[in-house]
Amino acid sequence: MIMKKLPSFLINTLHDISDPAAIIDEKYYVYYVNKSFEELFKIKINGKGKKYGDALTRLNLHLKGNKSESPQYINLSGQQQKIILSVYLLDRYKKSGNYFLILARNSEKKAEKSQRVKTSNPYEDEEKFRTEKLSDEFSELVGENIEFRKALVIAQRAAKSNISVLITGESGTGKEILARAIHSTSKRSSKPLIDVNCAAIPDTLIESELFGYEKGAFTGARTEGSRGYFDEAHEGTILLDEVGDASLQTQSKLLRVLESGTFKRVGGTKNIKVDVRIISSTNRDLTSLIEQKTFREDLFFRLNAFTIYLPPLRERREDISLLVDYFLKSNDDIEKQNLKFSSSAMEILTSYHWPGNVRELKGVVSYAVNMSKDSIVSPSSLPNFLFTQDTKSNHRGLSITSLKDKTYNLADAVKNLEKKLIKETLETSPNRTMAIKKLGISRRTFYIKVKQYGFD
Ligand SMILES: Nc1ncnc2c1ncn2[C@@H]1O[C@H](COP(=O)(O)OP(=O)(O)OP(=O)(O)O)[C@@H](O)[C@H]1O
Ligand SMILES: [Mg+2]
């Protein structure tokens, strides 16, 4: 239900205050935002009752009681900020539904000022992100989706400074290749990029792996001693991969070297000064790890002076066909580089939910390339899991049965699938004999089905 009219005194007051303020309902429909709220969440309200799924629903607001407060980490053009959101139920308007006033204020704890980089104005228009030229180092990152482009453009801007960059995003969204692109675009490109898998270092070896050891430091140590990752990355970049999975021990060692810029080798006494640029990546939600006390907040603020979020593939479905072309073109088998996916094969790819993101798509393309015998890839050359509905995730795209003919009746679903496959095979085969062969059914059954579905 839509609130008929917000009282003007309320609007005028919210309009005049400098703190970000908004009015939403329990479904996160937004009825009013003032200028600072617009700026903070980069949303523009044009019309009443507009739903801003992304920016707001991602927040974990407590839309129930009369008043609640929740700290949130909000990425404002690459800068992570801790914001306290106060949510008030507007009791007076209860008759027309539950409406909430949200007031935001900046918590004192922010990313350090000195580490901030000048970033874009939140109103910087999308066209700029779309058209800003990216250097060749970013060419391995394929995609035109605006959120994805923004991530690349911001990464390119951040690459030029020494600022710490945290790359977040689900598994397989390209965090590692983006980290490499940032390093290669930076002034440090001629120096090494040292990839440290934080999840894989056993606690007993952390210090010697990160900082190296002096000769004779412990039994079994090599006589000449050993250099650690920080030594090797001197003047270059360290990629703290899977940093969200680092043990608390590893986190405290990392924090120490990041704060002091120096470290001691195991068995050594000398403080060694080190000049490294830190890029970290994780597919975990660090803010909830902080709440669970498994990730140190102080380390988080060291790492995330600049945060770049890579969206999952299901939120940029328009890039799927670009990526398919890219993976086909980069295929070793030159003859197969000209393969094309049929429209129904593409439909299956664009409706699948891609839990493994681009890595999974790459695997599917390579599977299809190996399976397909013709110049057109049809659904029969796609792996079976694309046709299986995963009931755990609430993805939209389902299977070969597209939304409009989706049914829970098994016999109907099988019929739909059969009909689609036959249609597809007829379209992509040079003649009926080939189609029959591909479908693996008898000629008689084929003609019965063709008649039944009206394809004759
Ligand atoms: N936008 C993209 N364009 C082309 N290839 C991509 C893109 N994103 C990812 N890939 C490819 O997908 C695979 C996975 O990418 P990457 O290793 O960078 O993912 P990740 O985010 O680091 O995953 P994880 O969290 O599992 O470590 C790689 O083979 C990479 O080349
Ligand atoms: Mg990775």
Can you give a write-up of this model?
By secondary structure, this protein is of the alpha/beta class. It has three domains: 8-107, PAS domain (Beta-Lactamase, 2-Layer Sandwich); 126-311, P-loop containing nucleotide triphosphate hydrolases (Rossmann fold), CATH 3.40.50.300; 314-452, Helicase, Ruva Protein, domain 3 (Orthogonal Bundle). Helix content is 35%, strand content 17%. The chain has helices spanning 8-16, 35-41, 53-57, 126-131, 146-159, 175-185, 206-211, 229-232, 248-260, 286-291, 297-303, 320-329, 343-351, 357-371, 410-428, 432-439, 443-452; strands spanning 21-25, 29-33, 50-51, 67-76, 79-89, 99-110, 165-168, 193-197, 237-241, 262-263, 272-273, 277-282, 306-309, 340-341, 376-377. A six-stranded antiparallel sheet has the order 3-2-1-6-5-4. It has a five-stranded parallel sheet with strand order 8-9-12-7-13. A hairpin with an 8-residue loop joins strand 10 (262-263) and strand 11. The chain starts with 7 loop residues before the first helix and ends with a helix. Mean pLDDT is 81; it is low at 108-120 and 390-404.
Helix content: 25-40%
Distance between the amino and carboxyl termini = 51 Å
The major beta sheet can be summarized as: 6 strands, antiparallel
What do we call the CATH homologous superfamily of the largest domain? P-loop containing nucleotide triphosphate hydrolases
CATH architecture of the largest domain: 3-Layer(aba) Sandwich
What kind of assembly state do the chains in view correspond to? Answer: single chain
- CA-based gyration radius: 27 Å
* SS content category: alpha/beta
What is the total domain count? 3
Determine and state the CATH class of the largest domain. Answer: Alpha Beta
Count the DSSP helices.
17
> How many strands in all?
15
- Beta strand %: 15-25%
Strand order of the largest sheet: 3-2-1-6-5-4
Q: Could you tell me the CATH topology label of the largest domain.
A: Rossmann fold
What is the typical, i.e. mean, pLDDT? 81
- The stretches of 5 or more residues where confidence is low (pLDDT under 50) are 108-120, 390-404
Overall geometry comes to flat
Q: Tell me which ligands are bound.
A: adenosine-5'-triphosphate, magnesium ion
